[in-house]
Hints:
The protein starts with a strand and ends in an 18-residue tail after the last helix. It has one helix spanning about 100-115, and strands at about 1-10, 20-25, 30-45, 55-75, 80-95. By secondary structure, it is mainly beta.
Amino acid sequence: MGTKFIEVDESHKGQPNVEEGVKTIEVGGQTITTTIFVQRIDFDDLAPEVTDNLTTVKFAVTVAEEMEDLTGELDDDGSPVTEIKEIQVPKWLEIDLGPESLKQYEEVMAPFFAAARETETPMVPAPRKRRKK
């Protein structure tokens, strides 16, 4: 997500996306820490000047990845022989788009969406629990 922070005065305290923080500066050999307020501004990842009506679009692309695989053969020393294979794996991405960028995305992807098949949502495996020793 495209995000930037701008410093705002204390009158913005309590407003949406405004957080309290600290700023430390060094002046004349002294360190001064002061409370500040910053406003988080999310923006269109393609057009950073767009900050309103953002939509997060999630999608997957297939990328090539190298994987080490056993060949079933043994080396002269008896150790298993491996080879590097290229496999195709999904890579999940997301992007935040304003209305105009979203429209461009939908127009470019329209023929792919029209030809696509609906599929089940991928299952995310639960983290494995460690056994107590």
